Amino acid sequence: MRLRLEIIQSNKAVGFQNFQLYQKRKDIFLYGNYESAYVRMALGSALQHKSMKSLEVRFFPNPQNNEFKKDIKNFWRISTRISKMEKLVNGSASDRTSFDSSNHPLFFVPHLIKKPDNSKLSVRQQLGTSVLQKSRHYDLQIGEYSNQINNIISMRQSSKYFAQRIYAIDAANHEFDARPEVFAYLFRKARYESSSNFNHFKTRNVLPKLQITYHVGEDFFDITSGLRAIDEAIKFLNLSHGDRLGHALALGVEPSEFYDFKSYKVFLSRQELLDNLVWLSFSLKTHGLFDNALESWINNAIEEHFAWLYRASIPLSSSNHSVTINTYINAWHLRGDNPEYYFDVDNKNEFVQKIRNSRRPYDLLQDDFCRGIREKDKQACQLMHHYHYNYDVRIKGAEIVTVEIPEGFAKIIRDLQDAMLEKICHLGIGIETNPSSNYLIGTFRKYHKHPIVRFYNRWLVPTPTSPQAFVSINTDDQGVFDTDLENEYALMSSALENAKDNNGKPLYKATDILRWLSDIRIMGMEQSFMLTHKHLSEGR
């Protein structure tokens, strides 16, 4: 019993870190032959369903090209063997005599793992400032992540038919380790350079766009951190129709309950807090959400932390005394650029000049607003330089501070959630939800309070007022959570059927729950990257 309790997630703590602790314990027992066994189990349990139309296999893409190809071939071999055996046992006479691999439901979604910044802080002195030689996450960006992206591009461009079954890419794991900016220009590169391949006659074939599903807004110290990460993923990775957000709990958790759970105190690094406050100020104005008392609190907090973090760390010669909130907002908009562009904002470094002259479209965000900032707002570019390369900013920014959540903050955050959800709906971006996984990681303690009920509540309420998002119910990782799609649907169905108001009256009718689940089932099929790929290939 004690051994079982140490393997399953049996405590009352929340958050991805708690889940990861238990997952690492499982890895102690799963190695060698066991590893391939649980891959077969995860694939087999899904492929045995006769109604299975498509199956996403998400896996860590090995940075070594040969190993990456070997992994894909292994997944394909295992799944093909399972499908053949299933047809032999349960199929019709025609099924038993032939197996058409072109109609195989398997396709691949390599996902990069979010990791802590492992770049060494090598320092040199310049104009009274300690300047770092490497930007944030530099070693991972030019090393592991770059190799993985290049492997994906190479595989998509190859002539083997299963290589073109790489329909999408993903980034997953602990959100605190790496924000969307870390993957931004690399994901844009993957899309740009894997858009075509060449056949045996050296003729260029245009391939359907590589889709993106990005795990974001799942685990956070503050809802604002999660919402900002969602916004950054959409903006920096250029997410659009057909792309998906994984989990996105920050969009749907009830702010008043979250802050009550946190005793109206949050603990953040000074850099994250400053970024959150500046982004919040910009977002509230963008969506027309105003609260004079909160605006005053936000502006005072921004000035306090900016003075401590940047004004005290940047030489006076840089005119940092005239930097405004708008300047910082402009700098934030550039976070999705290749950080090497800002190593030397005075254009004196030949290496940086070479990058700027290369004109690779994926290195820099290409919208007119960002181009205008780079051309006209030198102070914003200087802030980007100090964000990445100023030693004092990096060290002071990692300090943890305590924030007392003011009155009215939860309400304004809830309004912002609705505004962002509406934007996501207009963009046609889907939201993947995973009830079991989200329950174990999130802060809600009852399944009927899962954010999906807020994302999409048609049939459940008489007159839906919130934006109706494009959602799906998923298993997350069958090799980890020991669940299947039927179980995830059953969990939500049971939870909604048993949900009651304060007077003990059922909140929802059984017929309405079935209609709601039917809608989500249809949306889930429409979210399939295989279906999107097929439609795009046929020009639909």
Low-confidence parts lasting 5 or more residues at pLDDT below 50?
92-99
Q: Helix amount, in percent? A: 40-55%
* Termini separation: 55 Å
Q: Number of helix segments?
A: 24
Secondary-structure class: alpha/beta
The global form is globular
**Approximately what portion of the residues adopt beta-strand conformation?**
5-15%
Q: What would you report as the Rg, rounded to the nearest angstrom?
A: 24 Å
Strand order of the largest sheet: 1-2-5-8-9-12-13
Largest sheet: number of strands, sense, barrel closure: 7 strands, parallel
How many beta-strand segments? 13
Name the average pLDDT: 83
Give a structural overview.
This protein is an alpha/beta fold. Among the domains are: 1-31, no CATH class; 217-261 and 417-540, no CATH class. It is built from 24 helices and 13 strands. The strands form 4 sheets. Strands 1-2-5-8-9-12-13 form a 7-stranded parallel sheet. The chain has a two-stranded antiparallel ribbon with strand order 3-4. A hairpin with a 2-residue loop joins strand 3 and strand 4 (129-132). Helix 11 runs antiparallel to helix 12. The longest helix has 26 residues, at 65-90. The protein starts with a helix and ends with a helix.
What's the structural blueprint in terms of helices and strands?
Elements: H1 2-7, H2 16-29, H3 33-47, E1 55-59, H4 65-90, H5 93-97, E2 106-113, E3 123-126, E4 129-132, H6 138-142, H7 144-157, E5 168-172, H8 184-193, E6 196-198, E7 204-206, E8 211-216, H9 223-236, E9 244-247, H10 255-261, E10 265-269, H11 270-286, H12 292-311, H13 325-333, H14 350-358, H15 368-376, H16 378-389, H17 391-397, E11 400-404, H18 409-427, E12 430-433, H19 435-441, H20 452-455, E13 471-473, H21 478-481, H22 485-498, H23 510-526, H24 529-537
